[in-house]
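Here is one chain, start to finish.
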Amino acid sequence: MDEILKYFPELSDIQQEQFGRLGALYKEWNARINVISRKDIDNLYIHHVLHSLAIAKVYAFGEGTRIMDLGTGGGFPAIPLAIMFPKVHFHLVDRIAKKLRVCEEVSKAIGLKNITIQHNRGEDIQEQFDFVVSRGVMPMMDLFEIVQKNISKEEQNIVANGLICLKGGDLHDELARCADIVDIFSIADYFDETFFETKKVVYLPAVEALKLMPSTNPKAFMPKRIKQSVGKKRKNNLSIARKR
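Its structure:
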């Protein structure tokens, strides 16, 4: 828990309590249903909770934003982000039902009211969201092919709707196809633990990614108004705020 307060000292008392309870809850449920490597459970706060919150260092989601976490596993990054952004709705999806049981029990125990859970494959989800987040290993553009139907063309944030992934290692080959439109943020710029040295937050704007897809007309997706251009490399933190 100290690792969270180190980087997010402004947390409310309720948020501190919720984050503080995650350690015991995940140890309890992970002993029943393995969602985190048992060798890694003692690193929960750095390797899983803080890693998920790297997205919050780059983006401050506005009230009413809707986000799907595809392949959520034990609830990462959605549950830590749901604590951080109590006025943002998170929809957790995974094809393995027992993992979602852990998400349900943990979120219920800490009183999260801003999440929903669905047992399904990404290919079969039809609901739309402002953003899709993922910590999975699927290549970025392969994942976008699945979730493009789930990203709403109705813009309500400064930054265009799109896909936000937590990635690690050498991304040169994986991102070659979309290199000109992705924004890549090194997590080591925000957290000083060695675990994050090769970890990244990668943002892919849907309106630009659609232009790279075969047989797709990007004009069909183009929102009426985009306040900020996408595809442009940004050096500073971005804040996602609702349009007024």
